[in-house]
Amino acid sequence: MRTSKTLIIPFVFIALAGCTRIPTGSVGVLQHFDGTIDNIIVNPGMQLSIFDAYIPIDTTLTRVSVEKLQPKDSNGVPLENVQVVVTFRLDPSKVASFYIKTKELDREDNGLYTLGPKILQESVIPYAVQLATERSDLATISSHLGDYAETIRQVSVSRLDKLYPNNPFIIQSVTVPNFELPETIQKQVNAKAGFLAELQTIEAEKQVVEQRQQLVQERATVSANALAQAAHATGLSVEQVIAWERVEALKTLAGSKAGASVLVLDK
Fold first, then answer.
1. Which InterPro entries match (predicted)?
2. What is the pLDDT of residue 116?
3. Is the residue at 267 inside a domain?
């Protein structure tokens, strides 16, 4: 009977204990029974604790999209709509301390939690987009969206570092899938694009003409050199060589026509 009682006690403790699986690609945050959070990192795997809870936090790539932003450019002209997509992941070593400070957890569709999407959506991205937009005019930005996205990324990183000294966010990329200009600005951009396209066409045609002229000059130079060499070799003048070539050409033409006769006048 002692053996039976001895075995019952561990099973009771196991039943009372919390058992949580931390998936690969996540880290666990340990929350004690009294609500305090331990500043340690719990690695993936099955975790067993008594009266404590492990919160699995996703540290793989996460995408956050913000749209319908209307930042103003350097002239105070607002955009109709801009959409920005930020791809980021979390530094596992900084997750616990960040959560202790912010208590910012967002539940994902897969049942895991991640840190910070609301911070990015509501604070960081709108701030970065406005700062990046006011550095130039809308027409210029629209033709350099890659640089615009990179500026948003840099400003976002700087903003996060300033807000959170132990910043866990690692921003991988920023894209701008939608950039809608006001109608008046869009017309200006379209007109400029058409003008530039016309200039490119004119420039291309000019280059073709110049290439043809250069080819004619090269052929003339080759022909002149050949005549000079022939005159030197035969002792004839250049004019005599030209006349002789004409005669030979006429003979060849006459020979190619059956029954044709050619009269050559020697002047």
1. Band_7
2. 74
3. no
Query: Looking at the structure, do residues 96 and 166 belong to the same domain, yes or no?
Result: yes
- Mean of per-residue pLDDT scores for the chain: 75
3-state secondary structure the chain: CHHHHHHHHHHHHHHHEEEEEECCCEEEEEECCCCCECCCCECCEEEEEECCEEEEEECCCEEEEEEEECCECCCCCECCEEEEEEEEEECHHHHHHHHHHHCCCEECCCCCEECCHHHHHHHHHHHHHHHHHCCCCHHHHHCCHHHHHHHHHHHHHHHHHHHCCCCCEEEEEEEEEEEECCHHHHHHHHHHHHHHHHHHHHHHHHHHHHHHHHHHHHHHHHHHHHHHHHHHHHCCCHHHHHHHHHHHHHHHHHHCCCCCCCCCCCC
State pLDDT tens for residues 79-119.
889 999 999 988 888 888 887 777 665 555 555 556 678 88
21 and 32 assigned to the same domain: yes
Range of the domain at 96: 62-186
Specify the pTM.
Answer: 0.60
In a domain, residue 120? The reply is: yes
